[in-house]
Please model this.
Amino acid sequence: MDIKNIESEVLDIVVAILIVFVFYQLLGIAFGTSHPIDVVVSESMLPNLKPGDLVICMKDKPKIGDIVIYSGIENYPIIHRVIGINDSYCREKINGTCYHIKGDNNEISDPPISEKQIMCVVKLRVPYLGYPRYLIYKLIGF
Model:
């Protein structure tokens, strides 16, 4: 391979990465969220969401039963289900609209979260499409 071919290949890769990045940003703007696409990386939502599933979500007002992505500890995104809104469990802990959240496969619920912690509501699940990212997370220890 000569230097021109290598330069061409590198340029193609850089352009492809830029296209994916721009597409992701435009999707986020269209869906009203910074996380329009995410990957399930734990078993907390089994059997409904499996590790490696890709989820597509939009900014929306969550209802009981909706699966949401919310900002957890250190702003790490967590995908769990809304099981209560402004219930007694929440109101004791948070002023304003609060959400009672739980992973379908978890024994106990999460601490209550505020409305501002909700990033988006999951609208679509695509099985296995996020598996490459899931494997990378597992390899680096997430």
Q: What stands out?
A: Helices lie at 3-31, 88-91, 131-140. The mean pLDDT is 90. The CA atoms of residues 13 and 19 lie 10 Å apart.
